[in-house]
Design brief:
Blueprint (H helix, E strand, L loop, with lengths): L1 H22 L1 E2 L25 H9 L14 H6 L1 H18 L10 E6 L10 E6 L2 H20 L16 H17 L18 E2 L1
Helix pairs in contact: 2-4
Amino acid sequence: MAKRLLQAMILIRLKYLPNFFTSVFTKEDDEDETFLKDIKYDEPSSDEVFKPKEINKLLKNLNTSKSPGPDQVHPKVLYELADIIDIPLCIIFNSSFSSGIVPEGWKIGQITALFKKGDKKLASNYRPVSLTSIICKIMEKLIRKRIVDHMNKYGLFSDRQFGFIGGRSTGLQLLKVLDHWTEILDNGGSIDAIYTDFIKAFDKVIT
């Protein structure tokens, strides 16, 4: 019985999981720029986009216990060589950003399937987790910071958004909702609440 179960698990991982994860991918149109209309932006500066100092800081904040990506560059190595490779990485990041070209190696990810719950023989009960290049993640953090700074500068974040924003949390969101509901009840009003549970939200992966 144990041998059959092991064979079934191997078959799921080698055949059914790749086919299932591929089937739920959504390919976006990279040429579609309609979402950029009517959004304010700053003209690019003549200065370099990224600086060695900020790259050095991110390198020294790496968690050295994490696993390396497909390029096998371990975070411990990046951490120890931070003062040496910050300038070369800065050149690579600025070149990649200005040209709009991402190195092919950064696009590769090692996919691990994590079982969530339910029948272990069903591929839909597994969630894919991708292990990617740590160097690429550092550049992504730099770009994310600039996007968030831009959004904050022009007030593009909604006051109702609490996820993925520094200084906000689900706890603060709950307090704000309770404060709003209390005010309504104190004024003699009523409240209707609808909750949506997105089961298997990670079954849809946008690339």
